[in-house]
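Model it.
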Amino acid sequence: MKHDRKIRGFFPSCGAAPKSLFLFPFLLFLLPGCESPAVDRTCNPQDAWSCRQTGFFCGETPFGGRCVPWSCGDGVQDAPEECDGVDAVSCASYIGGTGSFACDASCRWDFSGCSRCGNRVLNGLEDCDGDRFADGFSCEALGYSGGQVECLPTCRVSTLHCLP
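Modeled.
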């Protein structure tokens, strides 16, 4: 332990630069890691709660399940992430409606670009839904002399019944 303290004396704190750059390459092999206590903890991938509590996930390694760090935005979807760097995806293919959704900065799905057409609530990119219309959707506002706009099943406005 005395030797360990002497080696650690070259580093003012974990992750800081060594006081002597000449010894830095040698210290890489001698200095104990500054990682979380969760690193290298064994875990069971079916019951990995202990890893998640420390910001890690239980990953499969050649040596079995180990708590390993995860990083949002690295392009790799780790266990606690819903997504990671995925391009926009069509709402119709997953939750129905129109528009697209994407992965947000915290690696969670952001559905704000999706509309849920047919629920009688204006969502996302909908012009209308049932008998509800977004502001500015009337025959007169669209340049017609009168008539009634209609909401199509796709939550888009039809001017078929507007008067010229």
